[in-house]
Amino acid sequence: MPYIPxxxxxxxxxxxxxxxxxxxALFQDIPASMRPKSFNxxxxxxxxxxxxxxxxxxxxxxxxxxxxxxxxxYDHHIPAIVDALSSRGEFLTAYTPYQAxxxxxxxxxxxxxQTAVSRLLDMDCANASVYDGGSALFEACMMAVRxxxxxxxxxxxxxxxxxxxxxxxxxxxxxLELATVPHGGGVSDMQALLxxxxxxxxxVVVQNPTFFxxxxxxxxxxxxxxxxxxxxVLTCYPVLQSILKTPGQMGADVAVAEGQSLGLPLSFGGPYxxxxxxxxxxxxxxxxxxxxxxxxxxxxxxxVLTLQAREQHIRRAKATSNICSNQALCAFRAYVTLCVxxxxxLARMAEDAVDKAHYAAARLAALPGVRLLSDxxxxxxxxxxxxxxAHEVVDKCASRGLVPGFPLGGYFAGMDNVLLVAxxxxxxxxxxxxxxxxxxxxx
Amino acid sequence: MKTIFxxxxxxxxxLMPDAPAAPAAAHLPQDLLRPAAPRLxxxxxxxxxxxxxxxxxxxxxxxxNFYPLGSCTMKYNPRFMEHVASLDGFTKLxxxxxxxxxxxxxxxxxxxxxxxxxxxxxxxxxMAAFTLHPMAGAHGELTGVMxxxxxxxxxxxxxxxxxxxxxxxxxxxxxAALAGYDVVNxxxxxxxxxxxxxxxxLDDDVAxxxxxxxxxxxxxxxxxxxxVALTHAKDALLYYxxxxxxxxxxxxxxxxxxxxxxxLNLHKTFATPHGAGGPGAGPVGVAERLTPFLPVSRVVKLxxxxxxxxxxxxxxxxxxxxxxxxxxxxxxxxxYILRQGxxxxxxxxEYAVLNANYMRKRLESHVEIPHDRLCMHxxxxxxVAQAKQGVKALDVAKALLDKxxxxxxxxxxxxxxxxxxxxxxxxxxxxxxxxxVDDLIxxxxxxxxxxxxxxxxxxxxxxxxxxxxxxxxxxxxxDDA
Lengths: 443, 481
Description:
The complex is a heterodimer. Chain A has 14 helices and 15 strands. Chain A is an alpha/beta fold. Chain A has two domains: about 65-75 and about 340-440, Aspartate Aminotransferase, domain 1 (Alpha-Beta Complex), CATH 3.90.1150; about 80-335, 3-Layer(aba) Sandwich (Aspartate Aminotransferase, domain 2), CATH 3.40.640.10. Chain A has a seven-stranded mixed β-sheet with strand order 2-8-7-6-5-3-4, sandwiched between helices. A four-stranded antiparallel β-sheet of chain A has the order 11-12-15-14, covered by helices on one side. By secondary structure, chain B is of the alpha/beta class. Chain B contains 16 helices and 14 strands. Chain B has a seven-stranded mixed β-sheet, with helices on both faces. Chain B has a three-stranded antiparallel β-sheet with strand order 12-14-13, with helices on one face. The chains are: A alpha/beta, B alpha/beta. The interface between A and B is large, with 207 and 210 residues. Chain A: GO terms for molecular function: glycine dehydrogenase (decarboxylating) activity.
């Protein structure tokens, strides 16, 4: 009996204590009419047999390709210490730290995580994570709606189309207006964004770098939002945030991010990490777990979950969100990553990725008929216009073991020839050479 | 214990990636760059190792302590599942790879895991189809209620309310509100949903009834068949909060009984670790009439056996997750189900229920058990008698920490005074439970002889009882404040 410790004798003794004849008799409250019509599952398998099956499935995925896929999710190096520490059972198998005295390790780690991401994004405070960058963005919008009691959300189209779709899904049943401001040729259209903010606007939502990889300064936009009484929401890329002008410096009220790049594997889409930070003024609107520092009766420093009166288990229908379990272990991985890399290490990782991307952009733009989508500054990712359909180019390259990027035609009308190309510090110049040669050979 | 920031030494370096060939300033205008580096800790790798290891010693987990936390299913998490989920073929897979037209064959293994897991969950619950997108139980609730909203919208129904019994998890009403519904509470009678109360509340505006069965008292709902009939008679849908599936595996399938939507907490029933609050995964199963509304994408198998992601569902509610849910967590559940198989999963429930009833019987003469009948995988006790002696449920909980046990859930459900809610789970041995019960009996007896000792518990943890009021008032949320 896998993972069940009872001997047959113990089972009988315990049944006797309970006062029933058999294990089946424990279920006498479920009437016969409610018993399963079938339960046709395969028989159990040994650990070795399941392992063989899963290894076979893992091999059926092709992960040895050279890939320039990004789109907000990046293949950064994960320091070995991250796996080592996050697999310690005291963190891995713990529950939400409701009994604070027995969970000071988790609580202090979360407090330090909050500190680290607040400093990275230059914001006042952070929660202990939500599901992913997209749900963090939705929750940020809801913070703005509650704080302003307004219902219009202005969204830059150069924001990730995946997040825009999530936002549309989540707001379907709510009385909210999503006003999308068209991108200006692969960059944020600053004039149109400024013009879109009116007295009914709850939030203005932008991304830095944009989905196209371009980097902007939204200071003026956020000042305009403030003047109109709206909340500024910025979603950013935490690795690059070690070198870029920060959400805090630009005057964002809420800054969110997908934390996958900080020590989490790509893992086919999850689990990822929603990083969520804000100014002190708006913190009571922030959903999810937040840890605060306090003292015990002897004056010793300790940590507790705080501001819980906002949460579902207390406020039920009036809670700031329905979030219960979150991504605490993912936040823990990001925390260890930030600690072990430190400011210098993280900046190096970011600068190396940016340098590689600029090399790749130069190599591709030198090919006949190829140009960059925009001439705006960019970080570790950029969009190039090819003289032919990008999907076809990707298909041909993929069959030779190289994925040159992500074709944008499926997400943006008129962009069938546009390819989004990402680099990280793991990308080599040699790989970039192959990329340029292979794409060049197909044009 | 100092924070890592207090241990920071300017100039000390941890892990250093390779240096870039050129600095960012060579590629980006100065005014887009950050003027000063973020004040992250400057520590060595060993500093991090020692600091975090010290933190770990200040924590309880299932690996270190018994965790009979009712409503939370804190069972042993076999390390084998961690092993399979960390195989390179899964962790290195970029999610966008599956969306490349010509590269779908690069992800066949992952798609097969998803496809098979959906099939297995359908068979386990009796539902017609599953989505793996929801990233947690409460996220599954939101997905399910949004499918319900889409169903009613599609039928032209104007329904504005969702009924949540008072024994429901707090996430249920919060979810209904987040999905745009008004929440109607109904009171339990004798620990059960009262069909008359339900009938009175069930008008034509009700879109759904959200219920947990066995409920949060650990009891099977006796009026389930009537509840299903009453709800469906009003064209309302019935939602099953599957957080308690550990009690009924192989004994009841929610689809067979008439539920329209169910979410499962893979991290509870299917043994993936809680990670101090996540990540989890909350797949949602629906009855046939709700399948058009499930989130996209959906995994589809072609006649030749190839799998692909299909986005062509015009009535779909859309994207609940950026990609395909918490795939890494799904993998662990998949491996767990394969390990257990039909007999194994049935045994999970049999022993979860046996353990809960065994503990209940051993405790019944020492503490009040408000509904002292056969329970399912958990049961509720009440420290009302001890409270008269000055010892609250919270004091009992804290004293248990001193004994090396995690406390049961306290003050939930809200409908039982001085509530203590126990869930031992099937992986705990009789010896562990006996030790826990003996310790608990000793603590309960101290209520009559030395209440002050319990009121000041815990005594052996790294810190004593913490001032939560001060934490909320002062709001020290980072090391800078």
